[in-house]
């Protein structure tokens, strides 16, 4: 489930893709079932590491979990979770914050799939296992159109079956510590164009004490998280639509960041 | 517009997006836009849209997928224009 610079396929083609082979669908279902069965063990482990070993804390945890549950209940159709990206373990932190273990066990779709870059996490067996059980689909940066099509097909299948996918619209961790709304990926727009009725749950998350770019948040960090459900739409066509949809998502997250800093500044006065 | 003119315009449009600036001095038709010039896939979308605006053409998504080198872009634009 560890993310780290999750990327989107690099194909520019945005045709709706539905030709996922049966064997691939079966593999994804097996992965999902295995992940669900073993979540009984690795779910508590993640929560223990989060709360006990790293002593992380979260502002308004109960309210956030209720908001997440309510927003997903209201949303009909596919939901894409789009979050700003600052540390290597953003997906894990987000996963621990958004729902309790019993809730994930009851509603396993609420644990989003992740898209880690293959070369970062698939070279060692134990990481492959973690990624497999953490509902991850490896993707390759600068993939060939064929590889990109395969990854996109998988994502569309997952979204269509009702599961959530978590991506980082920036396409990389922000080195400046703030949302990069200039040099960001258009992968979000590619997915949204292929699946027009998809809702986007925009999430802004950062450590309050030492938030910013880092491999790992510092021990004892306290996290802020805010979320907003949106439905990006665009009248444009082709690649212009892809770009427009991507801009809408990144702009929303940027706005949430500005609201966070405005609130931080006003609360210090 | 001949191929040389298209090539020069294409290079001019790609340059602002190239992260690997050293490779700009040794550009050829075979230069790979993503690998050699260090352009990422999102910026490649921007470049293709810049081609559309500059040459007043429409590049289909599938055709855009076939643009790997500067030569691919020149060939595609040349075909569209002529």
Automatic annotation (TrEMBL), chain B:
<dbReference type="Pfam" id="PF00550">
    <property type="entry name" value="PP-binding"/>
</dbReference>
<keyword id="KW-0963">Cytoplasm</keyword>
<comment type="function">
    <text>Carrier of the growing fatty acid chain in fatty acid biosynthesis.</text>
</comment>
<dbReference type="GO" id="GO:0016020">
    <property type="term" value="C:membrane"/>
</dbReference>
<feature type="domain" description="Carrier">
    <location>
        <begin position="4"/>
        <end position="81"/>
    </location>
</feature>
<protein>
    <recommendedName>
        <fullName>Acyl carrier protein</fullName>
    </recommendedName>
</protein>
<dbReference type="GO" id="GO:0009245">
    <property type="term" value="P:lipid A biosynthetic process"/>
</dbReference>
<dbReference type="GO" id="GO:0000036">
    <property type="term" value="F:acyl carrier activity"/>
</dbReference>
<dbReference type="InterPro" id="IPR003231">
    <property type="entry name" value="ACP"/>
</dbReference>
<dbReference type="GO" id="GO:0000035">
    <property type="term" value="F:acyl binding"/>
</dbReference>
<keyword id="KW-0597">Phosphoprotein</keyword>
<keyword id="KW-0275">Fatty acid biosynthesis</keyword>
<dbReference type="InterPro" id="IPR009081">
    <property type="entry name" value="PP-bd_ACP"/>
</dbReference>
<comment type="similarity">
    <text>Belongs to the acyl carrier protein (ACP) family.</text>
</comment>
<keyword id="KW-0276">Fatty acid metabolism</keyword>
<keyword id="KW-0444">Lipid biosynthesis</keyword>
<keyword id="KW-0596">Phosphopantetheine</keyword>
<dbReference type="InterPro" id="IPR036736">
    <property type="entry name" value="ACP-like_sf"/>
</dbReference>
<feature type="modified residue" description="O-(pantetheine 4'-phosphoryl)serine">
    <location>
        <position position="41"/>
    </location>
</feature>
<dbReference type="GO" id="GO:0005829">
    <property type="term" value="C:cytosol"/>
</dbReference>
<comment type="pathway">
    <text>Lipid metabolism; fatty acid biosynthesis.</text>
</comment>
<keyword id="KW-0443">Lipid metabolism</keyword>
């Amino acid at each position: 489930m560890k993310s780290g610079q999750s990327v989107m396929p690099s194909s520019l083609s945005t045709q709706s893709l539905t030709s996922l082979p049966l064997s691939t669908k079966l593999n994804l279902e097996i992965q999902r079932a295995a992940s669900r069965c073993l979540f009984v063990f690795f779910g508590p482990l993640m929560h223990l590491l989060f709360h006990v070993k790293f002593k992380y804390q979260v502002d308004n945890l109960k309210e956030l979990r209720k908001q997440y549950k309510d927003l997903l209940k209201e949303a009909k159709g596919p939901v894409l979770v789009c979050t700003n990206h600052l540390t290597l373990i953003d997906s894990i932190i987000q996963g621990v914050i958004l729902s309790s273990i019993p809730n994930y066990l009851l509603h396993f779709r609420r644990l989003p799939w992740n898209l880690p870059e293959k070369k970062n996490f698939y070279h060692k067996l134990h990481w492959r296992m973690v990624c497999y059980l953490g509902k991850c689909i490896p993707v390759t940066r600068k993939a060939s159109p064929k590889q990109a099509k395969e990854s996109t097909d998988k994502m569309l299948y997952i979204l269509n079956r009702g599961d959530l996918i978590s991506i980082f619209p920036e396409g990389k961790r922000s080195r400046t510590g703030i949302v990069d709304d200039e040099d960001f990926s258009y992968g979000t727009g590619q997915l949204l164009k292929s699946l027009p009725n998809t809702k986007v749950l925009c999430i802004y998350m950062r450590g309050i004490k030492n938030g910013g770019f880092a491999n790992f948040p510092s021990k004892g960090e306290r996290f802020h998280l805010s979320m907003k459900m949106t439905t990006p739409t665009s009248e444009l066509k082709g690649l212009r639509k892809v770009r427009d949809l991507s801009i809408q998502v990144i702009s929303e997250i940027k706005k949430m960041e500005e609201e966070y800093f405005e609130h931080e500044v006003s609360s210090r006065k | 517009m001949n191929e040389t003119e298209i090539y020069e315009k294409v290079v001019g449009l790609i340059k602002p997006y190239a992260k690997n600036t050293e490779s700009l001095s040794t550009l050829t038709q075979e230069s790979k836009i993503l690998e050699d010039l260090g352009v990422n896939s999102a910026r490649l979308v921007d470049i293709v849209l810049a081609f559309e605006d500059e040459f007043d053409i429409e590049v289909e998504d599938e055709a855009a997928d076939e643009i790997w080198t500067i030569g691919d872009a020149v060939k595609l634009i040349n075909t569209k224009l002529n």
